[in-house]
Amino acid sequence: MTREAFEESLRREGYEVYYGGFRAGLENPDHVHAWDARLMILGGEIAITRDGKAEIFRMGDTCVVPANYPHAEKVGPRGVAFIAGRR
Predict the structure, then answer these.
(1) CB neighbours (10 Å) of residue 57?
(2) Is 80 in contact with 22 (CB distance < 8 Å)?
(3) Cα(12)–Cα(14) distance, rounded to whole angstroms?
(4) Is residue 46 within 8 Å of 22, Cβ to Cβ?
(5) How much is the mean pLDDT over the chain?
(6) Could you tell me the pTM of the whole model?
(7) Is the CA virtual torsion 7, 10, 12, 14 positive or negative?
(8) Are 20 and 84 in contact (CB under 8 A)?
(9) How confident is the model over 39-44, as a mean pLDDT?
(10) Mean pLDDT, to the nearest integer, of 71-77?
(11) Which residues partner with 73 through β-bridges?
(12) Are 65 and 37 spatial neighbours (Cβ–Cβ below 8 Å)?
């Protein structure tokens, strides 16, 4: 899926669209968000740990994290850039 197609699908499904990123090596311990989140990685990588299992997402990968779902994040050595949807 292209970035444009991903962004279009977010808007069609009622998500607010954000572009962002995190610095290399950033670690966010277990936390929750009050919103459903969908991500597409545009560059770099991020590991998202859910239910004790880490999964690495790289350029072109997508991820869904439901509202109030505990997860942790660890950014790779080159940082991460992403497009995110919240609703």
Answers:
(1) 20
(2) yes
(3) 6
(4) yes
(5) 97
(6) 0.93
(7) negative
(8) yes
(9) 98
(10) 98
(11) 28, 48
(12) yes
- Residue 22 Cα to chain centre, angstroms: 10
- pLDDT tens, 54-66? 999 999 999 999 9
The length of the chain in residues reads: 87
CA distance 46 to 24: 9
Q: Write the single-letter amino acid at 61.
A: D
Percent of the chain predicted with pLDDT > 70: 100
Nearest to 40 by CA among 77, 84, 71, 87: 84
Residue in this structure with the two tokens 């607010």, named with its chain if needed: 16
**Cβ burial, residue 24 (10 Å; 0-12/13-18/19+):** exposed
Burial of residue 51 (CB within 10 Å: 0-12, 13-18, 19+) is exposed
pLDDT tens digits, one per residue of 13-37: 999 999 999 999 999 999 999 999 9
